[in-house]
Amino acid sequence: MITWILAVFGLYFFNLMLVSYLRFTETGISKDDAVRIGLGPRDDAPSLGVMGARADRALTNLKESLPFFITFALLNLIKGGAADQAMTGAVVFTVARYAYLPSYMWGVPGLRSLVWMVAVVGLVMMLLPLV
Predict the structure, then answer these.
(1) How many whole angstroms separate alpha carbon 121 and alpha carbon 104?
(2) What pTM did the predictor assign?
(3) Mind listing the pLDDT tens digit for each residue in 48-59?
(4) Considering the domain boundaries, does residue 29 fall inside one?
(5) In a domain, 81, yes or no
(6) Which burial class, exposed, middle or buried, applies to 104 when counting CB atoms under 10 A from its CB (0-12, 13-18, 19+)?
(7) Mean pLDDT score of the chain, rounded to an integer?
(8) What is the pLDDT at residue 82?
(9) Is residue 39 assigned to a domain?
(10) In whole angstroms, what is the distance from residue 115 CA to residue 24 CA?
(11) Is the dihedral angle over the CA atoms 70, 72, 73, 77 positive or is it negative?
Protein backbone atom coordinates (compact mmCIF):
# COMPACT_ATOMS: atom_id res chain seq x y z
CA MET A 1 0.00 0.00 0.00
CA ILE A 2 2.89 2.34 0.77
CA THR A 3 4.06 2.00 -2.84
CA TRP A 4 0.70 3.20 -4.16
CA ILE A 5 0.55 6.07 -1.70
CA LEU A 6 3.98 7.20 -2.88
CA ALA A 7 2.95 6.75 -6.52
CA VAL A 8 -0.05 9.03 -6.00
CA PHE A 9 2.13 11.61 -4.24
CA GLY A 10 4.53 11.39 -7.19
CA LEU A 11 1.65 12.14 -9.55
CA TYR A 12 0.59 15.06 -7.36
CA PHE A 13 4.11 16.52 -7.44
CA PHE A 14 4.40 16.01 -11.21
CA ASN A 15 1.02 17.65 -11.83
CA LEU A 16 1.95 20.55 -9.56
CA MET A 17 5.21 21.14 -11.41
CA LEU A 18 3.52 20.72 -14.80
CA VAL A 19 1.10 23.57 -14.07
CA SER A 20 3.99 25.86 -13.13
CA TYR A 21 5.99 24.80 -16.17
CA LEU A 22 3.08 25.40 -18.54
CA ARG A 23 2.37 28.79 -16.97
CA PHE A 24 5.73 30.00 -18.22
CA THR A 25 6.11 28.07 -21.47
CA GLU A 26 2.66 28.47 -23.03
CA THR A 27 2.70 32.24 -22.86
CA GLY A 28 5.87 32.78 -24.88
CA ILE A 29 7.55 35.08 -22.36
CA SER A 30 11.32 35.32 -22.44
CA LYS A 31 13.47 33.14 -20.21
CA ASP A 32 14.74 36.23 -18.39
CA ASP A 33 11.18 37.33 -17.58
CA ALA A 34 10.25 33.79 -16.54
CA VAL A 35 13.20 33.65 -14.13
CA ARG A 36 12.43 37.12 -12.75
CA ILE A 37 8.77 36.24 -12.21
CA GLY A 38 9.52 32.75 -10.90
CA LEU A 39 11.99 33.99 -8.31
CA GLY A 40 9.77 36.85 -7.21
CA PRO A 41 6.43 36.98 -5.43
CA ARG A 42 4.65 36.13 -8.72
CA ASP A 43 2.40 39.16 -8.50
CA ASP A 44 2.63 39.48 -12.27
CA ALA A 45 2.68 35.78 -13.20
CA PRO A 46 1.36 35.04 -16.67
CA SER A 47 -2.07 33.48 -16.94
CA LEU A 48 -2.46 29.87 -17.90
CA GLY A 49 -3.03 28.86 -21.50
CA VAL A 50 -5.47 26.14 -22.55
CA MET A 51 -3.23 23.18 -21.64
CA GLY A 52 -2.06 24.82 -18.43
CA ALA A 53 -5.65 25.51 -17.37
CA ARG A 54 -6.57 21.89 -18.06
CA ALA A 55 -3.58 20.67 -16.05
CA ASP A 56 -4.59 23.03 -13.25
CA ARG A 57 -8.16 21.69 -13.22
CA ALA A 58 -6.81 18.13 -13.16
CA LEU A 59 -4.63 19.11 -10.20
CA THR A 60 -7.63 20.61 -8.41
CA ASN A 61 -9.56 17.40 -9.00
CA LEU A 62 -6.66 15.34 -7.62
CA LYS A 63 -6.56 17.58 -4.54
CA GLU A 64 -10.24 16.83 -4.00
CA SER A 65 -9.83 13.05 -4.14
CA LEU A 66 -6.44 12.79 -2.43
CA PRO A 67 -7.77 13.05 1.15
CA PHE A 68 -10.14 10.13 0.53
CA PHE A 69 -7.41 7.99 -1.00
CA ILE A 70 -4.90 8.69 1.79
CA THR A 71 -7.53 8.13 4.51
CA PHE A 72 -8.71 4.83 3.04
CA ALA A 73 -5.15 3.66 2.38
CA LEU A 74 -3.97 4.43 5.91
CA LEU A 75 -7.05 2.93 7.55
CA ASN A 76 -6.60 -0.26 5.51
CA LEU A 77 -2.94 -0.37 6.55
CA ILE A 78 -3.93 -0.01 10.20
CA LYS A 79 -6.82 -2.47 10.00
CA GLY A 80 -4.85 -5.01 8.03
CA GLY A 81 -7.88 -7.06 6.90
CA ALA A 82 -9.15 -7.54 3.34
CA ALA A 83 -5.79 -6.38 2.06
CA ASP A 84 -6.30 -7.82 -1.42
CA GLN A 85 -9.43 -5.81 -2.22
CA ALA A 86 -8.01 -2.61 -0.73
CA MET A 87 -4.72 -3.10 -2.59
CA THR A 88 -6.54 -3.72 -5.86
CA GLY A 89 -8.59 -0.57 -5.24
CA ALA A 90 -5.41 1.42 -4.63
CA VAL A 91 -3.93 0.14 -7.90
CA VAL A 92 -7.13 0.95 -9.81
CA PHE A 93 -7.25 4.44 -8.31
CA THR A 94 -3.57 5.14 -8.99
CA VAL A 95 -3.61 3.91 -12.59
CA ALA A 96 -6.83 5.82 -13.29
CA ARG A 97 -5.42 9.01 -11.80
CA TYR A 98 -2.27 8.67 -13.93
CA ALA A 99 -4.53 8.29 -16.99
CA TYR A 100 -6.73 11.19 -15.90
CA LEU A 101 -4.13 13.91 -16.43
CA PRO A 102 -3.38 13.21 -20.11
CA SER A 103 -7.02 12.44 -20.86
CA TYR A 104 -7.98 15.83 -19.44
CA MET A 105 -5.17 17.68 -21.18
CA TRP A 106 -5.94 16.11 -24.58
CA GLY A 107 -9.59 17.03 -24.18
CA VAL A 108 -11.03 13.79 -25.54
CA PRO A 109 -14.81 14.02 -24.98
CA GLY A 110 -16.06 11.49 -22.44
CA LEU A 111 -12.65 9.93 -21.74
CA ARG A 112 -11.85 12.16 -18.77
CA SER A 113 -15.20 11.36 -17.14
CA LEU A 114 -14.80 7.64 -17.75
CA VAL A 115 -11.31 7.61 -16.23
CA TRP A 116 -12.59 9.64 -13.27
CA MET A 117 -15.34 7.07 -12.68
CA VAL A 118 -12.78 4.26 -12.71
CA ALA A 119 -10.82 6.13 -10.02
CA VAL A 120 -13.98 6.42 -7.91
CA VAL A 121 -14.50 2.66 -8.28
CA GLY A 122 -10.97 2.23 -6.91
CA LEU A 123 -11.86 4.39 -3.90
CA VAL A 124 -15.02 2.36 -3.26
CA MET A 125 -12.97 -0.83 -3.43
CA MET A 126 -10.71 0.62 -0.74
CA LEU A 127 -13.67 1.73 1.38
CA LEU A 128 -15.60 -1.56 1.39
CA PRO A 129 -13.16 -3.52 3.61
CA LEU A 130 -13.44 -0.75 6.18
CA VAL A 131 -17.20 -0.98 6.65
Answers:
(1) 18
(2) 0.90
(3) 999 999 999 999
(4) no
(5) yes
(6) buried
(7) 92
(8) 62
(9) no
(10) 28
(11) positive
